[in-house]
């Protein structure tokens, strides 16, 4: 046992704490000493907190997280301010209560303020400025956000649109704006509002450049630059330029072929008449804006969870259903689930896996090869070479995470971090190993003429061909290629991957594992950053999971994915005309609207508004299914 693990026991013996007594029988003073330390003993809790802050190991961070949870401050009850500040009110509301309003609610509250003539004189300009800024946020589709929402909890698309809203009000001209997929997380209903906002910026005398895959955004552009023809080393060329109409007419443009309808993401002819035999039900979901809802998820199906931005999709799946399943299926799980009453149908599943867009690692040490474990197999191959055996090199020699074979100047990272006091840290290439990660002696060992660093520089598709005789390596690399990552370098640092790429690396990792046929996969907007052709590839992968009797639940705004799902659950709170959970089932090529029984406490919209009309249009655009319709209720 290490010295650090011995310290708590030494401290207990030194202070007279009986180590044979159960923890529950220790006094509060004794427990506090063990957790928070005394004298030279740091304390278990403080030790874990320090290690969590200092470690660069993603594995260590996740292990320590098991013993941590966030709780509301008992002094301010989450208000963040002291009593004196909270004592000041407007219309009986303090500043903390006001920041709990959504943008829409805030507009209504400001407009309803009852002020005296004197108060109006003082507040008039301030209120006008507040309303103006709130309108900018509404124009970019963020009316559902609460004013006090933590910046760290915002998606990339939301954060980008907030910055965009601040620019609209600045009135600047002659500015070049560059936006990276601003439609991420945006319901198709809100696309036009965002486009109109960008056009306002243009009309002020600015230039707006948008990196985008959304068809509506591309069609509304004044000018399009289409890159290709492929991805990674197969890309990097300008394939076509011009107006959207010129792109559509250009035979070299794959994007143009999808925009014109020459290529479509077709709905597969599948037997949708198969009855739903098993289902997973969760009752009384009340976290955040979920209004005590009951939801039934059919198992063994591809289920799309849709709805306008802020309707509660992520709250339902990521913050409630997934942790609820983990708590029921994994006794060691320490996470907290959103508010719910009960869950049924657990006998039909054995595990739940969340595949989100969080990074696969926070330092250059992590990369697709290490995350998928294919690097372990590659190191085995190098260990078996004649040169490695002659020099007595074991598997660890080819790891850049431990001493021996790695470059000690950068400690195997290939880069050196420079801490910047008032800015984000920056990484520079290691001058000794030139980003190769290994020392010279290790790089002398080769397999088929390539050393370990050169293999890490290969793309997935290149490595797949290089290791054609190694079945296990082929299988893992094959899954990366299936999900559209054939262009990615094996050793590409995790810090350079987009959220969508990180998510697909995770998906490939799960695909390479042996399937039990009773797994629930939860994905949060997997089409982020994907071209039309890549969306088509992704759908084939997801369908493969379902064909193995697994269940796939997807949060998605992409209409091509939604139309290819077996079942749709649409959330929202735009209209209270109906109070049921609205769902859609594919049946014999016709989208049939069905409603599960609900109650008056539910706050769901009917599927007719707004997703149905958009989906009907997209389905009708698909030539093979041009007669598919959504029958409306009378």
UniProtKB/TrEMBL annotation:
Keywords linked to the UniProt accession: ATP-binding, Cytoplasm, DNA damage, DNA excision, DNA repair, DNA-binding, Excision nuclease, Metal-binding, Nucleotide-binding, Repeat, Zinc, Zinc-finger
An annotated GO cellular component: cytoplasm
UniProt xrefs under InterPro entries: ABC_transporter-like_ATP-bd, ABC_transporter-like_CS, P-loop_NTPase, UvrA, UvrA_DNA-bd
BP GO terms, sorted: nucleotide-excision repair
Gene3D superfamilies cross-referenced by the UniProt entry: ABC transporter ATPase domain-like, ABC transporter ATPase like domain, P-loop containing nucleotide triphosphate hydrolases
Pfam families: ABC_tran, UvrA_DNA-bind
Domain ABC transporter: 274-596
Localization in the cell: Cytoplasm
Domain of life the protein comes from: Bacteria
GO molecular function, one term: nuclease activity
PROSITE patterns the record matches: ABC_TRANSPORTER_1, ABC_TRANSPORTER_2
Family: Belongs to the ABC transporter superfamily. UvrA family.
Classification via NCBIfam families: uvra
Protein name: UvrABC system protein A
């Amino acid at each position: 046992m290490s010295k650090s693990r011995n310290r708590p026991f030494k401290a207990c013996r030194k202070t007279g704490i009986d180590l044979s007594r159960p923890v529950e029988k220790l006094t509060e003073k004794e427990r506090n000493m063990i957790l928070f330390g005394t004298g030279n003993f740091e304390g278990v809790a403080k030790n874990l907190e320090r290690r969590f802050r200092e470690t660069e190991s993603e594995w260590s961070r996740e292990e320590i997280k098991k013993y941590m949870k966030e709780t509301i401050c008992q002094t301010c009850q989450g208000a963040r301010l002291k009593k004196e500040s909270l004592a000041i009110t407007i219309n009986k509301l303090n500043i903390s209560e006001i920041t709990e309003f959504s943008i829409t609610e805030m507009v209504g509250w400001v407009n309803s303020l009852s002020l005296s003539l004197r108060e109006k004189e003082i507040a008039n300009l301030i209120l006008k400025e507040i309303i103006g800024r709130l309108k900018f946020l509404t124009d970019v589709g963020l009316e559902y956000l609460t004013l006090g929402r933590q910046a760290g909890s915002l998606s990339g698309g939301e954060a980008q649109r907030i910055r965009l809203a601040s620019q609209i009000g600045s009135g600047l001209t002659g500015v070049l704006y560059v936006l990276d997929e601003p439609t991420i997380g945006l319901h198709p209903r809100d696309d036009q509002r965002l486009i109109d906002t960008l056009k306002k910026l243009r009309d002020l005398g600015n230039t707006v450049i948008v990196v985008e895959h959304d068809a509506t955004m591309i069609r509304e552009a004044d000018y399009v630059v289409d890159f290709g023809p492929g991805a990674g080393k197969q890309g990097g060329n300008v394939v076509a330029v011009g107006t959207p109409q010129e792109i559509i007419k250009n035979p070299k443009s794959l994007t143009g072929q999808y925009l014109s309808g020459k290529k479509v993401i077709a709905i597969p002819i599948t037997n949708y008449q198969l009855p739903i035999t098993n289902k997973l039900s969760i009752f009384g979901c009340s976290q955040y804006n979920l209004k005590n809802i009951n939801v039934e998820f059919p198992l063994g199906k591809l289920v799309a969870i849709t709805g306008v931005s802020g309707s509660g999709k992520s709250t339902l799946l990521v913050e409630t259903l997934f942790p609820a399943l983990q708590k029921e299926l994994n006794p060691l799980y320490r996470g907290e689930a959103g508010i719910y009453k009960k869950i049924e149908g657990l006998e039909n599943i054995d595990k739940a896996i969340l595949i989100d867009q969080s990074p696969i690692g926070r330092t250059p040490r992590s990369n697709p090869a290490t995350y998928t474990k294919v690097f372990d197999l590659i190191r085995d191959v190098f260990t078996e070479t004649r040169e490695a055996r002659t020099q007595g090199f074991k598997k660890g020699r080819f790891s850049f995470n431990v001493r021996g074979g790695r470059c000690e100047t950068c400690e195997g990272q290939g880069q050196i971090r420079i801490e910047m006091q008032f800015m984000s840290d920056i990484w520079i290439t290691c001058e000794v190993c030139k980003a190769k990660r290994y020392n010279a002696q290790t790089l002398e060992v080769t397999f088929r003429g390539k050393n370990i660093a050169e293999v890490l520089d290969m793309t997935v598709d290149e490595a797949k061909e290089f290791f054609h005789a190694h079945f296990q390596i082929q299988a893992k690399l094959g899954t990366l290629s299936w999900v559209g990552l054939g262009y990615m370098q094996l050793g590409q640092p995790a810090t350079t991957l987009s959220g969508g790429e990180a998510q697909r690396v995770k998906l490939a990792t799960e695909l390479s594992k042996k399937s039990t046929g009773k797994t629930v996969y939860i994905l949060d907007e997997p089409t982020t950053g994907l071209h039309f052709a890549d969306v088509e590839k992704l759908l084939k992968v997801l369908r493969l999971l379902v064909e193995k009797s697994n269940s796939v639940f997807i949060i998605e705004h992409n209409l091509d994915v939604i139309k290819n799902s077996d079942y749709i659950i649409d959330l929202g709170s735009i209209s209270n005309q109906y109070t049921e959970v609205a769902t859609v089932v594919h049946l014999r090529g016709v989208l049939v609207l069905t409603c599960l029984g609900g109650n008056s406490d539910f706050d769901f919209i009917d599927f007719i508004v707004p997703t149905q009309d958009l989906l009907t249009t997209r389905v009708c655009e698909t030539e093979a299914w041009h007669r598919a319709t959504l029958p409306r209720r009378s």
